[in-house]
């Protein structure tokens, strides 16, 4: 009996395409990291990350070939120079991997419910499972080396307490209620993410060739710095520690390990992830002053991300994603 072939849906095509683009970028990044890493424990994590990215690229390539769908250009050996000097420290490689796995889990989790064909569901379930393993390995090494930054401790609840006053939602004026655990989690995480973005962008701004892209990176660092100050203020007001900066993990070199196209793509991914993080934080932050700050900063990142896309278009680096049929061309 002949089995009916089910075509890929728009959500499946879009998810696979995005998966291919991101993982061809990660192949380039981790090839460079692997050429520079010296610590044996961190090297194993980098090898694991590179292997997963290569596997994902192979799977998506096979599916697209079978479907007669064009293979995206993505990123190739032309976008990486493994012979370039070290730009980041081994510890940075590890911290970068932790942040990328966190983002990947969110991305795969959003993709999976919109996949229908069994092989596509199995692929993204495998992506989630393998990324969880990488996250676990990375966290264990970070902890063993004493460079993992834990979120703040708060007192355990001794009894159940019901909210009785509308002041629970208040902000701006008068004495504010203490931060909830969820609010602390998002504030702390978003400070960490901005520190990582600042470190990445510091390194990229040193080596990027295009002056307009360099200016864009410098502007991004200033945005991150300002947003870190906003989030840190809430933690400091509650006598809670804020995460520290990682700019010291960036080495002073001028030769770029990556193409301008790849570096701008990474910053675009981080901007998109930041907007998603802020959206999640808004839903978990009932205090009006915190929510208002997230909305304001979300708009700032949105404008920055839009300018990044315009730069990609200007330099002919933006690959057109899968899209609906253009009726005017038919």
The class by helix and strand makeup works out as: mainly alpha
Instruction: Give the helix tally.
Output: 8
* Distance between the ends: 36 Å
Global shape: globular
Portion in helices: 55-70%
- What's the total count of β strands? 0
> SSE string, helix = H, strand = E?
HHHHHHHH
Q: Indicate the mean pLDDT.
A: 92
What does it look like?
With 330 residues, the protein is mostly helical. The protein has eight helices and no strands. It has helices spanning 10-36, 40-67, 90-111, 118-144, 181-207, 211-237, 260-283, 288-314. The protein is globular, with a radius of gyration of 21 Å.
What is the compact description of this entry?
This protein is an all-alpha fold and 330 residues long. The chain has helices spanning 10-36, 40-67, 90-111, 118-144, 181-207, 211-237, 260-283, 288-314.
Highlighted features:
globular, mainly alpha, 330 residues, 63% helix
Q: What is this structure's SSE topology?
A:
Blueprint: H1 10-36, H2 40-67, H3 90-111, H4 118-144, H5 181-207, H6 211-237, H7 260-283, H8 288-314
């Amino acid at each position: 009996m002949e089995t009916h072939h089910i075509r890929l849906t728009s959500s499946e095509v879009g998810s696979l395409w995005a998966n291919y683009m991101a993982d061809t970028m990660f192949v380039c990044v981790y090839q460079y990291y692997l050429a520079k890493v010296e610590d044996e424990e961190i090297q194993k994590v980098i090898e694991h990350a590179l292997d997963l990215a290569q596997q994902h690229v192979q799977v998506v390539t096979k599916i697209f070939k079978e479907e007669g769908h064009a293979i995206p250009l993505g990123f190739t050996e032309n976008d990486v120079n493994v012979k370039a000097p070290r730009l980041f420290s081994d510890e940075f490689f590890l911290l970068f991997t932790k942040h990328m796995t966190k983002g990947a889990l969110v991305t795969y989790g959003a993709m999976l419910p919109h996949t229908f064909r069994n092989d596509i569901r199995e692929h993204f379930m495998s992506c989630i499972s393998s990324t969880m393993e990488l996250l676990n390995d990375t966290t264990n090494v970070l902890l063993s080396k004493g460079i993992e930054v834990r979120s703040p401790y708060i007192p355990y609840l001794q009894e159940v307490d019901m909210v009785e006053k509308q002041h629970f939602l208040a902000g701006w004026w008068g004495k504010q209620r203490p931060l909830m655990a969820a609010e602390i989690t998002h504030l702390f995480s978003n400070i960490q993410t901005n520190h990582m973005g600042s470190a990445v962008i510091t390194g990229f701004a040193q080596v990027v060739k295009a002056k307009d892209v360099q200016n864009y990176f410098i502007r991004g660092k200033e945005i991150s710095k300002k947003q870190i100050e906003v989030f840190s203020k809430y933690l400091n007001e509650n006598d809670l520690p804020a995460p520290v900066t990682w700019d010291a993990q960036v080495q002073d070199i001028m030769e770029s390990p990556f193409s301008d196209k790849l570096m701008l793509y990474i910053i675009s991914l981080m901007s998109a992830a930041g907007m998603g993080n802020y959206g999640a934080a808004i839903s978990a932050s009932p205090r009006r002053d915190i929510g208002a700050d997230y909305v304001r900063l979300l708009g700032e990142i949105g404008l920055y991300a839009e300018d990044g896309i315009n730069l990609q278009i200007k330099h002919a680096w933006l690959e057109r994603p899968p899209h609906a049929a253009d009726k005017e061309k038919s």
